[in-house]
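# step 3/5: fold
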Amino acid sequence: MLPSADAPQYGVFVARQTAALEQAGCVVELVGLERRATGRGGSARKYAGLRRDGVHAANRMRPDVVLAHYLVPTAQIARRAARVAGAPYVLVAHGGDVAHLERSRPLRLATRRAVRGASHVVAVSQPLAERLRAACPGVEPVVIDTGVDRVRFRPGPGDATAFGAEPSRPLVVQVGNLIERKNPERLARAVERLRAETGGGELWIAGDGPLAERLAGLGHVRLLGAVAPDRIPDLLRVADAAALVALSEGYGLGAIEAVACGVPLVVSETAPVAGELPPSAAVRVDPHDEDAILAGLRQALLLDRADPAGQAVADRHADVVQARRLLDVLAAAAASRP
């Protein structure tokens, strides 16, 4: 996954991890897709191109190790590229890819060989690692997330008018695609009820998706569309509260990004990241319960900004810290090369 002008958030975590690895001294050749593959024919063509580009890069670069994000079908692509390079390969599971394996026995069987052939497998959260063990017996994942850029994501002042008219307060911000899994409609209803209680309030959502049309007619919701990654910290800093109430998440790195910016957060209790966030910085809620989301918003608005415990969590998950941990895994893989 690679970010582009048309889809600036798509794969931004891969680009940031690449920068952190380069900062740690690695030479990285990045090969990927700039937009999601859609449709059976479109997916086949795009992944065929990814395989071709990966093999060419491996043949030209002769890397010490091949690193692949997501399991399906990139595990097989990484296996092929590594074979061409005569190098080991490391896989990173993010969530949706493991869900595909859990739902499809043929896909699970097809992927197990590539997963078991990897030198190491990384999962972005402990719960995901446990699910991967169940789907691919014998695999022992290492838990490392992609990390947060602490240079950009930090407390500070913000200018709400940089994103349009001054909002009605309290302002709630959600960063994420407008899809069912991200739960924007239930959040929008909770903010509407909060607005009735407080006499004001607004929800800003940064992202695109199929639910945009259904949310566009709501007067208290401002759809910002795809916001450039470099502007996300500024957007979070102008919020009175941030929300990540997705129905499911592989990890939920966006929650730590919000906390890193010093913004009180409402977070889904089912997101793996929720267990790492202190109650002084984040309120956990049942994402299926609109009443719980509303109560969480009320509570979050009472929390202090730039909570020290929350900042400590963000420091532990800095991208440079996580990249150093990943580099240890990559170095161990490279050392196993015949």
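# step 4/5: annotate
The beta strands are 66-69, 89-93, 120-123, 142-143, 171-175, 202-206, 221-225, 241-244, 265-268, 282-285.
# step 5/5: archive (pending)
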